[in-house]
Every structure is written in C-alpha cells, then in structure tokens.
Design brief:
Largest sheet: 11 strands, mixed
Number of domains: 3
Mean pLDDT: 90
Radius of gyration: 30 Å
CATH class of the largest domain: Mainly Beta
Strand order of the largest sheet: 10-13-16-19-24-27-30-33-36-38-39
Strand content: 25-35%
Number of strands: 39
CATH architecture of the largest domain: 3 Solenoid
Distance between the termini: 131 Å
Number of helices: 6
Low-confidence stretches: 1-37
Helix content: 10-25%
Length: about 375
C-alpha cells in the first residue's frame, strides 16, 4: 500500500510537472510569436513614415538601436554627418537616412531621418506603459477634489481641496497637487513632483520627478537692509503638450501669470523666473536659467546652461547657444553665442581672436615704443 501510494504520488507529481512544462512551452511560444508579430518589414516601415527603401524591402525589423550597437533584425538611423564612418561598419539590418550612403545594410530614405526614427521607435517600442492602479487607499484625496474617468493615483500622493483632474491622468507616489489646481486629461505627474495652488495644467502635460510648478517667485523688497517677501499672487499656466524635466522649477508670477506655451519642452534642472511668458514649441535644454518678466517668442531654442537677464523681449525662432548669457533684447530668427551673447558669426570671430590677444598686446606695445622713439 505504501509503495502504491508513493507510486501514485510520483505519478501525480510528474503529471503536475508535465502540465506546468507544457504551459511554459505554450506561453513561451505565444511570447515568441508575439515578438515575431511585433516586427515590421522595411516596406511597412517605409509606408508608415512616408519613405522609400533601397535594398530588401521584405527585411523584418523588430527593434531600434544605435549605429554602433545595432544587430541583425534591428534598424538604426543617421542624422549627423559625424557618424558616417559608423554606417559602413554597422551590423544593423537597415539604416534610416535622408540620402544614399555606403553601407551593407538596407536603407530607408526619409525626408527627415530623425523624425522618421521617432515614428519607428513609437511604432515598434511604444511609450512607457503605466500600471492601472486606480485610486490608492494610501493616497490623500480631498473630498472636494474632482477626478475624471480612469485616473490612477498612487500611494502617498496628495490631491488637495477643489483640485480638478481630467480623464486618464497618472499621479505617481509622493506627488502634491495643491488647492484649486486644474489639470486637463491624459497628464502624467511623476514621483515627488509638486504643483502649487491654483496653477493651470493643460492637456497631455508631463511633469517629471521632483519638478516644482508654481513655486513663489524670487521677489523681495529691500528696506533699511532687510529683505521683505512680496506675495506672489500670479499663477503658472502650462498649456497643452508641455513637458517639464526633472528637478525644474517654474515660478509663479508676482502679479501676472507665468505662461509656458503649447508644445514647449523644458529639460531637467531648468529655472523659469516669475511672470515670464514663453511661446509655443520652444526647447529649453537642461540647466537653462530664464529670469523673470521675459517675453520669449515661439520655436526658440536655449541650449544647455544658457541664461537671460530679466525684462527682455526675445523674438520668434531665436537660438541661444550653450553657456551663453543674453543681456539684451533679440530680434526674430537670430542665433547668438557667448557672454554677453552676440550674433553667432561675430562671436566665432571673437573666440578665434581671444587666444592671440596676449601676442597682439606685445606687438602693440612694441609699436608704441618705436613710435615714441621716432617722436623724440
């Protein structure tokens, strides 16, 4: 009896192992099948981005990688002539580019290679997926707060009185959304970000970790050696499709609102001073500093560590090079460089001249001595 029981036990154990093994095989097959199905032929990718293929259009692509690290079955891109040598060596199955280049890979020719690259990354990999957690019992949500449909509020987030969030918003742990804040649909607020009271957040806005929106502007009245704080009664308005980088701070206005225009993307560790108005579709690279009460046009680019004085008017489609200091108003369309910032071509001439200044000084002094001798 004991032997029979042991035998039946082993049989049951083997059966259980077999069932799980079979299940694992099936799941692995489904996963592998899904992986294969996720791939696209070059012809399909070209149709998706409005491009053309040179080479085998039936090549299947399953992922995107860099020129240097891409492998067979992956597509890469070339948008900078600096990387032409890598195109010849790449192991990628295909390269996205805006022209014919020498390579063993197939080519996907697109008018804007970098934009086509973005479209293909989204198609093959998608954006970050957010867990559908619902409203956490460990979050603090005021009774008077209004949340739209399908919002997900994580542990230890705080949503204060009379705040209103649109549909499909994601609020990560540790976020603070102050009293009276309004936020449109499809916004994402990453961990420990803060949105101060009465700020207005548009649709599809992304606020990254530890960013602060609506912090008091740097406003003080100095009287008899004492700095007296000025109440900052304006708000911050982030229009639709704005993205705020990690650890950035957007100050609320002293009297008028601080406004960040639709589609503007602000990098990490950027500071925007109180009352500044930034136009649509601007790019502010990490560590930029914009002083208060500036008016900045649309499609402007501020490269890393560039900065401005306050109370300036900067036109549309202006580019400010990295580490430049803008001290005065700028017209539409200019590119400036240096501190103080000046027109880029002039700044280059100045930069080339600087190393030769000591030698020029010696020569000038020698000439002055000669002229002095000639005069005596």
């Amino acid at each position: 009896m004991a032997t029979g029981s042991r035998s039946r036990g082993w049989s049951a154990a083997v059966l259980t192992i077999d069932v799980f093994t079979i299940a694992d095989i099936i799941l692995s097959y489904i996963t592998f099948k899904d992986y294969l199905m996720a791939g696209k032929t070059l012809a399909q990718l070209a149709e998706h981005v409005g491009g053309t293929v040179i080479g085998d259009a039936t090549t299947v692509v399953t992922a995107v990688s860099t020129l240097e690290h891409a492998a067979a079955g992956e597509i890469t891109f070339l948008s900078n002539e600096k990387y032409f040598p890598l195109v010849k060596k790449t192991s990628a199955s295909a390269v996205i580019t805006d022209r014919e280049v020498e390579t063993n890979a197939a080519l996907l020719i697109a008018e804007n290679a970098y934009y086509a690259f973005m479209q293909i990354v989204v198609l093959l990999h998608g954006h970050r997926k957010h867990a559908a957690t619902g409203l956490s019992e460990r979050a603090s949500i005021a009774d008077s707060a209004k949340l739209g449909k399908n919002c997900n509020v994580h542990d230890l987030a705080t949503i204060c009185d009379n705040a209103a969030l649109g549909d499909n918003c994601i609020v990560y742990p540790g976020v603070f959304i102050g009293p009276g804040v309004t936020m449109g649909p499809d916004c994402i607020v990453y961990p420990n970000a803060v949105v101060y009271d009465k700020c207005v957040i548009g649709d599809r806005v992304i606020i990254h970790a530890n960013a602060t929106v609506g912090v008091d502007g740097y406003g003080f009245a100095t009287h008899k050696g004492v700095h007296h704080k000025i109440p900052q009664i304006g708000r911050v308005i982030l229009e639709d499709d704005v993205e705020i980088g990690a650890n950035s701070a957007i100050e609320r206005g002293t009297l008028e609102d601080t406004v960040i225009g639709a589609g503007t993307k602000i990098g990490d560790m950027v500071t925007i001073g109180h009352g500044t108005k930034i136009g649509s579709h601007c790019l502010l690279v990490p560590q930029v500093g914009i002083s208060g009460s500036n008016t900045i046009g649309h499609h402007c680019v501020f490269a890393g560590q560039s900065a401005t004085n306050g109370h300036l008017k900067i036109g549309n489609m202006v580019t400010v090079a990295g580490q430049s200091g803008v001290a005065g108003d700028l017209p539409d369309g200019v590119t400036v460089w240096g501190t103080p910032a000046m027109e880029a071509n002039l700044a280059k001439k100045v930069a080339v001249t600087i190393p030769s200044l000591p030698e020029m000084k010696k020569r000038i002094r020698a000439l002055e001595k000669q002229l002095k001798k000639m005069g005596s």
